[in-house]
Queue: 4 jobs
Job 1
Amino acid sequence: MKKKTRRPAKATGAKPGFSRRNFIQTVGIAGVGATIPLMQGCGTTESGPDIPAEGVGPTPVDVALNVNGQDVRIKVEPRVTLLDALRDHLKLGSADPVDLTGSKRVCDRASCGACTMMVGGKTVYSCTTLAIEAQGKEIRTVEGLQENGTLHPVQQEFVACDGLMCGFCTPGFIMSGAACLEKNPNASRDEIRRALDGNICRCGTQIRALEACEKAARRIKGRR
Amino acid sequence: MPYKWPEKKKVIGTSVPRLDGAFKATGKAKYSFDRNPPGLLFAKILRSPHAHAKIVEIDLKSIETFPGVKATHLIKGVGAELKYGGDEIAAVAAETEEQARDALRAIRVKYEVLPFQWSEEEALKVAPEPKTDEVGKVEDGFAKADVVVEGSYSCPVITHVCLETHGLVAWWKSDEELLLYASTQAVVKTAADVKGDALFKTIPNLKVTCETPYMGGGFGSKFGPDIQGIAAVELARKAKRPVKLMLERDEEHWAAGNRPSAFAKVKIGGTRDGKLVAFDALTYGTGGFSGGAQFPLPYVYGPETSRRKHFNVSVNAGDRRALRAPGHPQSAIVMEQAMDDLIDKLGVDPLEFRIRNIQKTGVFPTLQPIYETEIRLGAERIEWKKHWHPRGDKTPGPLKRGLGCALGTWNGAAGQAQASVTIRPDGGVEAACGTQDLGTGTTTLVPMVAAEILGLGVKDVTGKIGVSSFPPAGGSGGSTSCGGVSLAVGVAAMKALAMLFEKVAPKLGCAPADLRAEAGRIVSSNGKSLSWKDACATLETQPIVGIGDRADKEIQGMSGVGVGGAQFADVTVDIETGQVRINKMVAVADCGLVMNRALRGAAPGSEDRPDAQSGPRVVPGRRALGPSGDRGPSARLSGARGHRHRRAAVHSGRGGHRERGGQRRRRSRGRPSVLSAADPLGPGEEIRGVP
Amino acid sequence: MKAFTYKSAKSEEEAVKALGPGALPLAGGTTLLNLMKERVVEPEVLVNLKAIRGFDRIEAVSDGLRIGAGVTLASLLENPAVARQYPAIAQAVETVATPQVRNMATLGGNLCTRPPCWYFSHDLFACAKRGNANTCPAREGENEYAAVFANEGPCVAVHGSSIAPALVALGATVRIVGPSGAREIPLEKFFTLPKDNVLRENVLGNNEIITHVSLGKPNAKSATYVVLHKESHDWPVGLASVALEMNGDACTSSKVVLGAVAPLPWRSTNAEAALAGKKITADVASAAADAAVQGALPLSQNAYKVQTTKAAVKRAILIAATGKWA
């Protein structure tokens, strides 16, 4: 059973019988380059419109979502998932439709990764996230990876390495790969592979998807 | 004059990244599941909860007034027999998916539950008369054998698990014009099937178009509208609004087809000097309620004598559909395991025994040298000499490692296709074909072939596929599209070019036969030339359209039939936990003329691996249980870590394809080359394994 | 899913008030929402817990760690203290599902997960756990993944948490709040057998939630070994968590807890007895493994779990003691 390798915490002379102070010192420093708050998850992680005490629904309610930096308003029942809300409910009856069908519905059961989006900076299965839960969070989909018309390095490499065939799993793989490299541009081959663990391909592109992410990592590092 | 591929190729065989790659990678590619025309309704299908039943009563009327419901459609009425869990009964369309599902649950049906068959073993006892094929007399063969081995081999039913489920969006543009966005491997046939359906064929002047520029996988299961597609079209007609009906994941497992199981009791005999002398098999399998589960045996190898008795067995489960090289995986599973058992007892070299005993009839004599080369190449890459050992890894500890090898074959004849190549006075070129791209690369293939013939770059040609109103092509199945579409487009381009030459020749003071298209110019043997644009200007106002047809008798020697491939696996088994890990796989495929070097195809070993089955569990009295819910609907497809080392070398053995009596051209042996756009056997360029 | 009213609690008190008949708590949703899609669970009200202040906090306390029930599995995995001081937990968490699920799923939710049984998870089947008394389709049906201990009924499914055995082995406690206030109990006492109340897997009442999981002093000599057929995104078919108390080379006492074999984390005092006072060697670990599976009663399709469990126990012991099993 392999242990996950971690960067060692900076030595602080921590002794057994770990004191609270030692803990704060080590947690404050250790990590993978990103800042970790002194104590993880201090306070609530949720913000956004307050849900009244009596609740909302079951009939459709106004839901305000922030998707790829854009504010999007829809009216959906609480039971509508984030995936279905973005895929199906944005265009309907809208004068200025926003097209977000890039994320796909494949299993609808948190099993395959085709619906992977980043919510609050972390990859999630949007098929198993309620639209209403995603309020107040930063949502990113595959459509939001491009910058000023330039493909994200992961997208570029998927095209260059031919890391796709039918393409239905591709947005999900790209999101998982991009999230991995955003968090850790120095991710090893094994770490990238683990990051792609939650995405399934039926055509058989997994190896080239992995290759694409590795090449993208080199590209991203080359930029720095 | 017979058509032929150019001797020196400038585009074909080069590396052209998929033209649709960026669309797929950015989420801009529109699949059927993504279509949201204005006014869209969502539809769902009511299915039988019983393995076998009759409808006694059904009430659709009461849900017509359900919130959001806009149309209902009865598929099977009172008295209809439901033959499997999942069998379609009715359909409903509503404003939202949630409303459609709610309405579905409210439909009241009374069933008469009937006796059902779920066990393949039990169903075998009542199966119809078996089919027996014999070559020589197996008793004589076994008498000659030094070793005879008996064994039982099997594989279960598996499902296709296309990521995009089956279904379509039906949009009546008018009373007589219907647009379908169908997830299909056959745009022409899907449109034709809808048009010819009993519900619609009496509509005068009905025009049905199927538009499928992208589809999320078919693997043999998507060749028409299916029952749900027809239901969606009817709902759309009733509601006078577009309807989207895409199956849910569990419906895919129950009702969208499956790959039959195979059970085989085999007796196989061989001699110590390396001859396969006898093969006797009793086989059966189920393809669901229709029973068909045939698969060829003996497979690849030609025992001197053989006998094979096969039963098709029916159970009350969903019907089979072709799944990637239908029948052949089962054949390989049975044949190669029996071969391995015999080889082990004979104590002979597994690779030599295989090479020695390949069939001597049909296409196999041609494949013989190809198999030999493939086996040599594959053995090198998997380090066979270094790692192979007879059964029983003596390494201490619970991790045991071994190597295996298996051969496969397929037909892959160039399928039916027509194409048009249009050359415009302004120099623009369009190549169109009513074919489809399943991820197989047809989108890129079509303009590549036209560009090759016309002496242009790929970007100078607009390729058009995926619409049924384009020149018709057959469905993409059985590895027939690349060949058929290439030929049709190639010949269409040749014809269009010939017409252009007629116009250009007088301007260059020569005969049309003196002209050639090269590097964006039309060049005469007298030294004069025109740029492509200037050459096309000679057309003045009239574009040229060349039509190519695969069925054209002048097409000879441009494609072939029959391929053989070899695969190798390096596997470690933990004998304490039962875990199986694939360390490396090597697939060596014969793919003839390489069309696009950039397309690298599928990783080997995606199906029928110990960790890669997606088969439904058949449960007495009920539907086959999909592996949904807790285990995940795509449960058995391994993730990224399961695809560890992969190395794929491709060898184009025979070089050019050939048909009967045609030219045969050899490529240099051993030079890895990339798969043509639609090879079912597997992967592309030699890529480094991932350690 | 059936339509529901959505509420969001900002405090434990609000959560308790909002819960009650017809209402279910929503944390990560990875179990609940998909059971709701299958219509096997149909709450009228969902109460979101993720907005509860401090719910996702991990804090050092005088003797160990206090982990909020809303801490995601990913956060648990990223926490250096957990990895270093309670390796059995980290080793268990990293095998759970996929990165996306671990980003969403919470520790509290994982402890309260419903059984991974395909009959339970599908509304086509009558099932004792869903209220059809004396009906267990798994018992005589497809029981490949069912229990080999405590499987006399009325339900033969195993508990779905890969992390609970590690927490039990490390002596974790849970804090529960409800209408009658808060209480803290050993995690080992949190889980219940089907024969006590088949409708539940634990002692929580309708209006109660877990708020914290507390760990006592660290134990670096702890390990979890998980047998999975797929390298990712699969349920364990063998799992053992072990925590050793050592005196030099010898094991003075231990906790050995099995997963994937029973309706709750299965403490094996037999295995613990086989280790007591012994120097940990491969043979001793094997003997403990044999002891661990004594009394297992396989059903028609799950006898292999005896073998996978033995392997898991042996390997977990060796990893805990020496850092590796081979």
Note: The longest helix of chain B spans residues 481-508.
Job 2
Amino acid sequence: MEITFTREAKEFRNQIMAVEGAEKLMHCYQCGTCTSDCPIAKRVPEFRPRRIARLAMYGQKERLFEGDLLYLCAGCYTCYEHCPQEVHVSEIVSALRKKALDEGHLLPGFKALMQSVAEMGYIYEIDEFENEMREDDGLPPAPEPDTDGIEAIMAATGFLDKVEASRR
Amino acid sequence: MKYAFFVGCTTLSRLPGYEKSARKVAEKLGVELLDMPGSGCCGTTYLETLDHKTALAMAARNIAIAEEMGLDIVTICNGCTEVLTKTNKELKENPKLKAEVNKVLANAGKEFKGTVEVKHFVFMLRDDVGLDAIKEKMEHRFTGLKVGSHYGCHMLKPAEVMETEDPENPTVMDDLVAATGAEPIEYPNKLECCAGPVMGVRENVTWSVGLDKVKTVKKYGDVLATACPFCYLTFERCQLMQEDESPNLPVVHLPQLLGLALGLDGEEVGLTHNHVDAMGILEKME
């Protein structure tokens, strides 16, 4: 893997490490424990947590932001628990997703999901139809989320604007 | 015993069998589960990876509702459990962050105080109700039913946040299975993730993970038991996606097994909602 380590790349690495949970990136000595235990890496050849850590150490933004790479992590925390250096690659992936969103990148499926939550207060629509089905099962109506409050929270942090402005 | 009941979007809209059986089991054991007015999405485990403060505020809004009720929260989704537990812990331990999040929360007219706990249904049963008390109430016993439990990730991990059981050697689900008379089994890769969270990214990866587990459990046991809506959907759907009918392994929500042993009937625990026919387990009861 050929890597060019420019000043911009170093700056990007520092930005990643400034995100909470990603501070120990440089402790990674590339042992590969994360990758051998990863349920996704077992099935997806291009998803290698060790490689993600390596690319992050050298600030290789374009390669990291390519395609759906960052969104293939299931967040199972296996690498988090097993990392002998407490680098926690899952947290490096999270930090990278945050940086990607800051720069306008978000997978369309994630964008739609977050917009659903802001709009409906749930990830799915739970309305009259669903409540009728629930009633047939003897279940009480689903709680009615305070959608105005939820949208206000997501807007107040600037998150909703970032989601709406994002492209793949 | 009384709790604020946080059901979670997926179960509320897709899995009446899970919600029904959990509610009925609680009732049978004298546990009151109260609905949380105004509650909504926990924020999702995805949101945590996209924006820290928004994720905290979304979860804290729900926790604040339970605080207003003066009750600890019981959850039945691993994702919600992790999101709510992590937020609760982080905000209780960090007053500065709590103040920042409360400023955001004020937009929804809520305040996080830090006065309640969050626990998954299975831990509530084992640790608050107690295995002995549960066994005393059993009206039936399963005999010769081998059950493979799937714990999933977020009821246990990250261990330093969840503080429940050793994620390499959990026993809570197996303990509850054993209380019904059924035989809890060990099987290879028992602790592997269901990969449900990448279903929307690359579906085929999730089905591959799901099928591997289903086939393994089929080899060693009769039924797969889950305690999370995403895990359940993965193991059920990966089978329904197959063109032939193999491997045809029943997947049940753990409270369904408990409910049947507590004397509820198949209808009451919502067994007709299981898309891989699970009625066969009724024949293994005495």
Note: Chain A touches chain B through 58 residues (CB under 8 Å).
Job 3
Amino acid sequence: MNEKDLQLVHSISAVIDDGSSSIYVLHAKYTNLVRVNLVLLKAFLEEKRRKGLMITIDRPHQYVSHLMQLHGVDQSNLTFIDAISTHAADTKGGAVAPEFQRGPFHIEALPDFLMKPENNGSGLLVDLSKIDFIVIDNVSTLLTYNTMDSIKRFFEKYVEMVKSVRPGGIQTALVMDRDQHPQLFEFVSSMARKAIDLGPDMMVKKISVMGVPVPVVTQPMQQIVGPGELGTGVLRSKEVM
Amino acid sequence: MSMAQAAFPRIESGIPGLDEMIEGGFPFPSVILVAGSAGAGKTTFAQKFLFAGADKGEQGLFFSTLSEPAQWMLRYAAQFDFVKPEYYGKEVVYCDLGNMLRHCTGEELLAYIDQKVAEVMPQRIVIDPITVVGNMLKDDYRVFAFDLTTRLKNWQATTMLTGEVRPGEMYPAEMSYAVDGVILLMLSDEGDARRKYIEVLKMRGTNHLTGKQSVDITRKDGVIVLKARF
């Protein structure tokens, strides 16, 4: 990861709340979605030391796993649910993950699958009671396989699920390009507690809490990362401070 | 038109006049084959694709299969105004596959490309020329082509493969079935002149212009489409 990415890790880490079932929606250019997801995972797993679940819809999970490995992002506390592998005809090997066999076409069924992992037949269980956060890679791709109405129904069920599964709930991070899918972005944002706008330079441009903008305060990188300081997340919005 | 169709992501090619022929740019992600004979402008085309992306903040990765020292390739590339040396090694990363190709298997080559792509995280990739790989690999080139294109798309990048064509050949057939787009760069003898043309033969998900269009190569912009009938 380069300096900009690490700075973004700190920025995002500072915005993540403790112990809530918040949904975060991040606007980033579609060419940066992979990079932003990697940054998000590092922020949750390493800076916040959370246990997570990544649902892959855009590409087989092995790619994310490989990317994390190469960039030294610890994935020992990350579980994958792979919703695309069965349709990917991909020979790439790697980590094993439970597969959502119905694929991305029946996304409404995913919350039920997550709630009843013993029924998935893969033999690999996902225990949601031990999951702190969920990242979906990526929401926009759902439109390729589903109608807007079925995506809305999915999110309604999903929100119920993350609130009910454990005290404090599960946090969810969704990265999208607002300009690419404005209608979906608006819908997802309406459910989100925080919206974070990233510029093409991968810097935080704007943060909103429940639709109300809050100032973004940044500090130079050298003030953020000192020896042994990685994880303190000093780069904050005033709202968090 | 569905929402998914309306928001089909594209990136600008960087080639003046080409985006108007392909509904605004190359699909993202995708793998595009640029085929042509020697001197048709394939490498210039590919370099411009990377540097235009770098101008917009997109990361580029250039794989050379020729075992030509980067020094020589860059000396020629530096003749173009659009090539900015400050991008070298940063926004545009060069990687030589030539030495590796002499002794590796297709799987080893894929693993190396995978590793480099995951390390650099580019939005734009060039492999120049891909046809050399077919000549040097002992494995089944078609299987390699399928695996390569599948992986490149899953890495969320638009990749340009350049392909040298033999006399009488239109494009490298082994690769063309696996890619999302095929662009031909052609040289044509017309009286005393040798003219250059471009033709978009295939571009998936795109209502592209068909037929040959004149191109020129200039120091300022590299390959430019001169005459597009829109």
Note: Confidence is low (pLDDT under 50) at residues 221-241 of chain A.
Job 4
Amino acid sequence: MKNFNIIITGVGGQGLITLISVINQAAFIEGKDVRSSELHGLSQREGSVETHVKFGKKVYSPLVYRGQADLIMGLEILEGLRAVNRVGSQTKFLVNNYFLPFEDSPRKEKVLDDLKKNLGKNLFLVNASEICQQNLQNEVVSGIYLLGYGISKKLIPLKKESVLKVIKEVMPQKYWDLNIKAFNLAYDN
Amino acid sequence: MKKILLGNEAIVRGALNAGVSFVSGYPGCPAAEIGDEFVKIGKDYGVYAEWSTNEKVALEAAIGASFSGLKSLVNMKSFGINVCSDSLFPLAYTGTKAPMVIVVADVPSCWSSAQSEQDSRGYAYLSHIPVLEPADPQECYEFIKLGFEISEKFNIPVILRTTTRVNHQKMIVELEEPHFAKATRGDFVKNPHQFCTMPPRTLEMKKELLEKIKKIQQFAEKSKINKVDRRRASINLGIITSGVAYLHVKEALEEMGLDLPILKLGFFYPLPENKIRNFIKGLKKVLIIEELDGYLEKEIKILAGEINPKIEIFGKNILSEIGELDTEKITLALSKITGKKVQLFKSKNIVVPRRYPRLCKGCPHLFTFSLLKKLVPQGVIFGGDIGCYMIAGYPPHDIQDYIFSMGAGLGISHGVKKSTNQKVVTLMGDGTFFHAGIPALINTVYNKSNPLLIVLDNRITAMTGHQTNPGIGKTGSGELTEELKIDQICQACGVKNIKVIDPINVDELEATINEFLVKPEVSVIICKRICALLAKRQVAANKE
């Protein structure tokens, strides 16, 4: 089977690196080969961040070949939209309906409109931040919520049990409960 | 044991496994996690680890350790090797006593670098120091161990040259349990014959060095890290590649359904010339796929001239020297040579405005920047420097008129002041002040010019991930130490006008800026307030 390619986009500080660690480790314990590429440094200071994760039988390059992403996980709508230029017709988009505007950014309605216009039925827009804030009083786990959503809707070929197990392997104990709740909140709905 | 590791984590594990005892470095992205990890866990393994004041003293510390018999590792980003090169070259001459590996992390595409897209492999030619190029975390783990072996066998330092996509790549790594350092205390045995580079001995040393390199070349010829993949009967086209580009090549060939021989070079210097000759001997065409500068290509062209002058050589004529490589670029290059059609990716063309990095909420620099912005209509010139405050060059601030290398802002500002009648404000962080700012300050005082230096002292080296510096009162591993006061250093350097101000006192800061800007001598304002991110983390840590 072909490898599964994910590009995760967002804004520095949204927890992308933790999300990658969870996906990597889950793929690993399911016996898959896995590689990822992340960016650290100044871009983390609320700049755009784009990270790549690939898993499957045998992965060579840590970067997703343009046009071959199976899934874009956008932790913010404008950063999701930015990835539209990289996708093929098969690429599904799982986007957190959450907006971090800046001076020159287009209005939220315009961003959502562009996403819908360009992606049609490949777009899965999820109110992850809002739901996490309401139910868990914490929106930083919205990435894990998206992961739960993606797995339950079969957008990501990983098992629920693997993710629940690896949260405990890659995160400090004090965050286990919160992240497991965020995952289940998405998975069970 | 198998474990998912970041390239930098693999370097740490490999060095521990090789029995490293002494680690020094200066934080820079994408290398910083190596030093971060060692200052954190070093003690558990009997390893001494420090964040040094800059890369030059970091290297010198490791040289002292090596001369005293301790196995050492030095870590830095690309530009660090420029800073330490003055001591690096004589080190090649003296050689090491105990083994040493120097990790230098380049940043193709400048993901986390401002000043240039440097290809540090070129230092191999200047210094005659062996350079190894890993492609991924597994190779990081193995090559660092091999680096120590080569260093031990030939008494020469070895450079492990990585790139962002290697340092910050994660993969499943096969590794062994780390063990305790082999030695924690050394013994310096006097040997001026080896350790003093003084003519006429210097020229003898050069001869010894060049002879060593010949021997290491023999070693490289036999080394498994220069490997040939899929050597098939096909003699039409072969590929020579190195570093992470090898992984993109493998993917590109799979995508295109091509089966071509690949020579993957783990050694950049010295090159296994015979292995290369044998590889290109029967080929009609060869494509050299290396990121950034075309060093391999130049070498291979010379070798081809000797052994196979008719071979067609492709490299920088179809693959750019600018920016990192990826599968797409390599696929297009292969398509051009083989004539095999590839489906060109037609991308949508959505224009999304750039999201610039910005200062964090509550960042102390915000207060200073907003006051400086008021000076723009007066035609004041603003010198920048390396740190979070480079964001002064992005909207909405847009007040940075030049930026170069660590500490250069003040050095250039002095020259501007000497050459014009304009007012100059120059910014510098606390980490940068200690790293390379002090000589520039002394020069400014000594040669009598008067830029206004604003030291943005946020009590940490923030941008690279909150590493300690000599102004904090704590070492990298958290031990209490002397807290060097920037105002006292400025005073000792002969600065007459010095004020330490908490930048949230904007009225006082504004009045002082206006007062100091017209002083006939150099003036320094130290804007001292803790990094907002660090303050938040400290509060969170105290709660637990």
Note: The first strand of chain A starts at residue 4 and ends at 11.
